[in-house]
Amino acid sequence: MEKFGLLGEKLGHSFSKEIHKAFFKTIQKEAEYSLIEKKYEEIPNFLEKLRNGEYKGINVTIPYKVEIMQYLDEISPVAKEIGAVNTVSVKDGKLIGDNTDYFGFIKTLKIKNIKIEGSKVLILGTGGAAKSVYNALIDEGAEHIYVATISENDPFKVRKYDRLLNYSEIRNIKSVNLIVNCTPVGMYPEINMSPLEEVNLIQTDYLVDLIYNPEETVLMKKYRLKGAECVNGFMMLISQAIKSEEIWNDKIYNENISKEIYNKLVKKLYK
């Protein structure tokens, strides 16, 4: 039986196992997907097991999407451009990194009919997910992107007409068309936290919070009450998972599978 999994540090919040299990059932495939919690120093040994065929492929999540790149033999052009890897496949003993967050985010925008062309966007966070989102927004035609960071000398690279800023500066932005939360602030089990203080809750038409557990974060609740359309990260998680399966299995699956799995799991996981 083929084995796949998710590599991360703490995975109690993850729905990935349920998504891939539903995917295997939908395409009638015998396979296994597990959650693989590892400390940073354990990664090299684990990747050797991966190279030797213990798994056919893995996904990578917080906090290893950037760190894992140094251990890989090849990195796809998309992942290289983004500077983060969330999918690793094994081919002929080589570890090959790719990024499906990029595709998952774009699919979410299209399904929710959020137009990016000519828009002004605020991204919260500068980690691996933020890099994917930033590149996706550029490719979809965003006119101006603000990226909020907590670091003083953050190496996150932006275009000359975009801006890397501290959270304390957000309140000076009058309004944006879209806010994307790429931080884990508000994720289970710390569900009462928000990445933005009240003074920084600037006007926006849309909020996409990449967190999917809980179903509605504190940030989403606040913006829903302000009249913004709010979307969590569940559809993105499903879409990037299926893109990963396409990479591992060298197949293209019906684009309706994302919606089918979403409809099956949303009632089950958010009851």
UniProtKB/TrEMBL annotation:
**From the UniProt record, which GO molecular function terms apply?**
NADP binding; shikimate 3-dehydrogenase (NADP+) activity
Q: One cellular component GO annotation, for this chain's record?
A: cytosol
Range of residues in the leader sequence: none
Q: Which keywords annotate this record?
A: Amino-acid biosynthesis, Aromatic amino acid biosynthesis, NADP, Oxidoreductase
Is Transferase included in the keywords of this UniProt record?
Answer: no
Q: What is its EC number?
A: 1.1.1.25
Q: Name the InterPro entries on file.
A: Aminoacid_DH-like_N_sf, NAD(P)-bd_dom_sf, Shikimate_DH, Shikimate_DH-bd_N, Shikimate_DH_fam
Query: Quick one: which residues bind shikimate?
Result: S14, F15, S16, T61, N86, D101, Y212, Q240
Catalytic activity from the UniProt record:
shikimate + NADP(+) = 3-dehydroshikimate + NADPH + H(+)
Q: Which family does it belong to?
A: Belongs to the shikimate dehydrogenase family.
* Subunit (UniProt): Homodimer.
For this entry, the protein name equals Shikimate dehydrogenase (NADP(+))
Name the species this protein comes from: Pseudoleptotrichia goodfellowii
Q: Which gene encodes it?
A: aroE
